[in-house]
Amino acid sequence: MSISKFQAVLSSKCPRCRTGKMFSGSAYGLSRQKMHEHCPHCGFKFEIEPGYFYAAMYVSYAFSVGEVLCMALVTALATKSESPWTYIIVLFTTIVLFAPFNYRYSRLVLLHYLSPKVSYNPKYAEVKNKL
Ligand SMILES: [Zn+2]
Q1: Which of 13, 26, 67, 80 is the most exposed place for a label (fewest CB within 10 A)?
Q2: Global pTM?
Q3: Which pLDDT tens digit goes with each residue over 57-69?
Q4: Where are the transmembrane segments (predicted)?
Q5: Measured in angstroms, how far is the CA atom of residue 34 from the centroid of ligand 1?
Q6: CA 42 to CA 47: how far, in whole Å?
């Protein structure tokens, strides 16, 4: 039973086994979401190099730009407002609301799509904790 890369990203699975969860807690749950250091299923170390997740900032930045542009457009079309405060308030709220989403999915996209060193290996999906 293997899931596609896209499904693995959506359900926050490990990029190597696509079975273990990368995060504990949900992005918008009451308890704070936390990324595991190692995959609970196959033991894969998510931070493959020291400071690897600095690169996730660029992915997160791209997400933020997309979200802010969409919200600015929706606000402009819906309110036809010319006041900068309308946009400042709406866009600030957008950034805050999307922060947990960006934190989680920038790391997932980085590991699943932008890391040539990391690839799915079905052999890790089968056996638990066999390193
Ligand atoms: Zn794994």
Answers
A1: 80
A2: 0.88
A3: 999 999 999 999 9
A4: 52-78, 84-103
A5: 16
A6: 14
